[in-house]
Every structure is written in C-alpha cells, then in structure tokens.
Amino acid sequence: MQIIWQDSDNYEDARIGRVFNHRRPQRFPLAVVRATCEDDIVAAVQLAVERNCRVAVRSGGHSWAAWSVRDNSILIDLGNFKHVEVDAENRIARATPSMTGRELNSVLVRDHQLMFPGGHCPDVGLGGFLLQGGMGWNCRNWGWACERVQAVDVVTAEGNLLHCNAEQNQELYWASRGAGPGFPGVVTKFHLRLNPYPKKGGFRSSGYIYPIHLYREVFRWIIDISPNFDNDTEIAAISHFPEGSNEMRFFVLFVTMKDSVEAAEEALRPAQQSRPAGTVEEWFSKEDSLDEQYNNQAGANPEKHRYCADNAYIADDADVPAVLEEAFTTLPHRKSFALWYAMNPCSRRKLPDMALSMHSDHYFALYTVWEEENDDRRCQDWVRSVMEKVEQHSVGAYLGDSDFQVRKTKFWADENAKRLMEIRRQWDPTGRICGYLDQGDVSGTQGLGNAHEWKMR
Ligand SMILES: Cc1cc2nc3c(=O)[nH]c(=O)nc-3n(C[C@H](O)[C@H](O)[C@H](O)COP(=O)(O)OP(=O)(O)OC[C@H]3O[C@@H](n4cnc5c(N)ncnc54)[C@H](O)[C@@H]3O)c2cc1C
Questions:
Q1: What is the pLDDT of residue 244?
Q2: Nearest-atom index, ligand 1, CA of 100
C-alpha cells in the first residue's frame, strides 16, 4: 500500500492528477493512499480511525465538483485497484469501482457479447456512477444502472468488510443504490447483472441536426414521440456548436440497440417519418457501436478543461421547450452544451425499493466547458442565472451532475431521504466518511436536507 503524505514530492499529482475537472479545488487531504486490494482499503480506513480524520474515496475521478478531494482526510484512491471477473453463463460481472464503463465493456463485448449500461462518458468510474444511481445507456427503458447491482462488498466506517445484498446487510445495499457521495462506507466490489450486446449490426443511430431557430418546433416533436418510442432506443436532444462551426445547432440523436439491421431500422423509422423539415444534416439508421459512441462522448467532454455542471428534472407537465429555451440557445462558450434526455417510460414506473427515488420524464443538464481560468466567473454565473429560473419548474435533480456547494435541492423522495440520512448516521455515527460536499464542507452526519433551497428563498 502506497501512502503519499502532504510533504511528499508527488503529493500534488496524487491529490488531483486523476481529477477530470481542471477547475482545481483548494482542498488538501492529509494523505493519499493508493490501494491495490481490499486489504489496503481496510488498512486505509483503520489509518483514518487512528489519526481521527475523515476518509475520502476516488474511483474514476469524474465527479464534476471533485468530491474526492477533501480537507482533513485520508483519500483512498482506487485507480490501481482494477479487476473484473465475468460469469458469462449467469450474465454476472464482479467489478472493482475504478473500472470505467469502457474498460468493463471492452472485456464484456469482446469476450462474451455482453454489455453493462454504464456511464455515457467512457472514463466515468463505476464507483461514483453506480452509487448515484447511474443514468446509463438506454436508461429510459432499461432503467437505472443501479437496478442491475445485485450486491456490493463494502468496507464500513469502522473498517469491517461486509457483503451486502437483499438478504444480508440490507440497509447498506439499499443505500448503495442512490446515496451517491453520502454512502457511509467504501465499496470494494460491485456484483452486476449484464445485458446481451446487440447482434448482427443492430447497434445503429439516427441523427437530425437543425438550425437553432427551429428549436421550439423540433423540441415539441421529440417530446411528443418519445414516450411511445421503441424500447431499445435512447433519445437525447443537445444544443451545441459542431466542431469548426460558429453556428449553434439543435441536434436530436436516437441510439438503438437491436439484434438485426432490420429490427433497428424498424425501431428508428417512426422518427424518420415524422421529423420536422429543415435539417442541415441528418442520417438514418447508421451502423454504430458502443466504441463509436464512447469516442463521440469523449470528444464532447474533452480532458484538461474546466467544467461546471448542473441539472434538473423538469416537471412532467411543464412547457419544457419554453422553460429550457435560454439554456439551449445562449450557451456561454463554443465547447459547452445543453442536454435533454428522455426518461419516459422509466420515469412512469414504480422503482424498486432503494435510495434512488427522484426522476421525471425530462432530464435536463448543462455541461459548461471552457479552457481559460479568466472565463471561470462568466461561465459559472451563466449556469447560476439559467438554473435560478429553470429550478422553478423542476421537481428535483440528479446527484451525478450536481455541486452541493452551489445548489442544494431535492435529490430523493422525502421518505427515502429520511431513511437514507438515518442509515448514514447509524453506519457512520462519527462522520468518518466525508459524505456530501456542501459549502464549507460542513454537512457531516446531517447529510443533505432534501429541499429546494433556492426556491424557498
Ligand atoms: C464527462 C462526464 C460524463 C458523465 N456521464 C454520465 C452519464 O452518462 N451518466 C451518469 O449517471 N453520470 C455521468 N456523469 C456523472 C458521473 O457519474 C459522476 O460524476 C460520478 O461521481 C463519477 O464517478 P467516478 O467514480 O468517476 O468519480 P469520483 O470522483 O472518483 O467519485 C465521486 C464520489 O463518489 C463516491 N465514491 C466513488 N467511489 C466510491 C467507492 N468505491 N466507495 C464509496 N464511495 C465512492 C465518493 O464520494 C467520491 O468522491 C458524467 C461525468 C462526467 C465528468
């Protein structure tokens, strides 16, 4: 086990070298432990107990607000603890939390023709992603990625290793599916149910790119057709500046995962037949793959950039195109983008009993991307100003694209939030695990209040 204390030469690299967002935090762990096995994780938690300091965890390093970088903590970096074991017959994978979606799927697709609907960005770690719920591939139909978590292995705040599932240590299992960074332990392994990978060229996409002035008409179309659209197809609308262009565009993307070219074409045809006129570019049922999609996502979210993300679940009955018009048509930087992601019908079904419990038909997120530090204020002010208005029409937000230092809102149904905060206090009464990073990092054992704080002002 490698321990890098604050006075070590490589401390700065250990502190933030694996943090995706280059808007760097001024927070300084006492030490970083590079764990390579479960025993290292147990030893690191015991070290924190001995030193009476907190424990922070990093899996993939992709939390926008760098939740892994905390004062007065031992940061357990799981980046060198990568392991996956596949039981293809039963369609189960056992994977460590720093495995990324791409790493896991490269093994599953290549060797077993299976897949796991992990994060859209290839390099997001399973750890942060699954603890929050996980809006993975085709979430609107296949459901939340955490619904495929059968069990988790956990090192508790006291340093004990436990197996948690529906029969044993049920509370930790319940919390691991939606607590996000407030989970009161360190997950060492996820036991995951897998999907078959689409066969015979059935992974295909259609895209329709419009000038931004057609925003309202196109958005209404997509909202109308989404609820009854094919159930192996995910649907997103994005406003962005295509590479090399100064014109903002409104781009609607359908990605379907079927078992033949014919089935994919049939799934995508209703969009082709009903699309509004006026595209500047379009394609129908183009051959695609997970790898190709990962490359596109990596291109849209470049490394070594500065980011500010926020999001909202817009109320089902809101006039969504009107509510989101400012967000989609006034992006502050050419690299930034706004996303609407169809969640219906998943949003209309009763979720399993787990911490994750907040959603609506319309997921909306801002991914504000820029390069220069002197754009920090302008870009963050833009996000804040847009979100102040959007929040009035929202029912809550997703932990995964949130920063509680800026905005706290509803992240769970009331009952689930209450139970989650009780489980946190029961399993970590001293606040050993850092938990939710709010302003000043003071939330501790209290956790989050689960209220629309801006709306209430
Ligand atoms: C470019 C990009 C694209 C994204 N796309 C998606 C997407 O498609 N769908 C989606 O749902 N989200 C998406 N996200 C959000 C992403 O899921 C969250 O940021 C998530 O927290 C990242 O997980 P991580 O392990 O990489 O991050 P980390 O920063 O390593 O972890 C975040 C926090 O989670 C907790 N944590 C992580 N691992 C453990 C563990 N083993 N035990 C206990 N606690 C742990 C800790 O509090 C940690 O600080 C995206 C983010 C980025 C940057």
A1: 83
A2: 26
DSSP 198: P
What pLDDT shows up at residue 199?
A: 87
Q: In whole angstroms, what is the distance from residue 4 CA to residue 345 CA?
A: 47
* pLDDT value of position 149: 98
Partners of 185 in the β-ladder: 156
pLDDT at 452: 93
Cis before 345 (ω within 30)? yes
Which DSSP string corresponds to 115-153? E----SSTT-BHHHHHHH----TTHHHH--GGGGEEEEE
Q: How many CB atoms lie within 10 A of CB 340?
A: 26
Q: Tens digits of per-residue pLDDT, 21-73?
A: 999 999 999 999 999 999 999 999 999 999 999 999 999 999 999 999 999 99
**Atom in ligand 1 nearest the alpha carbon of residue 181:** 47
For ligand 1, pick from 62, 82, 304 the residue to mutate: most ligand atoms within 8 Å of CB: 62
Domains and CATH numbers, the chain: 2-77 (3.30.43.10), 84-196 (3.30.465.10), 203-401 (3.40.462.20), 414-456 (no CATH)
Q: How many H-runs (helices) and E-runs (strands) does the chain carry?
A: 14, 19
Specify the DSSP class assigned to residue 433.
B
Chain segment 210-220, per-residue pLDDT in tens: 999 999 999 99
Which residue ranges in the chain fall short of pLDDT 50?
A: none
**Separation of alpha carbons 337 and 249, rounded Å:** 10
* CA 123 / ligand 1 centre spacing (Å): 10
Predicted local confidence at residue 1, as pLDDT: 86
**Amino acid present at 200:** K
Q: Residue 407: its pLDDT value, please? A: 96
Which of 32, 121, 238 to mutate for ligand 1's pocket (most ligand atoms within 8 Å of CB)? 121
Q: In the structure encoding, which two tokens stand for residue 112, read together?
A: 């077993």
- As a whole number of angstroms, the distance between CA 65 and CA 308 comes to 8
The answer to whether the CB of 57 is under 6 A from ligand 1 is yes
Ligand 1 proximity of 321 Cβ (cutoff 6 Å): no
Give me the chain's average pLDDT, please.
Answer: 97
How many angstroms separate the CA atoms of 92 and 88, rounded?
Answer: 6
- CA 370 from centre of chain: 20
Q: Hey, CA dihedral for 298, 299, 303, 308, is it positive or negative?
A: negative
Mutate to test the pocket of ligand 1, among 63, 98, 148, 433 (most ligand atoms within 8 A of CB): 63
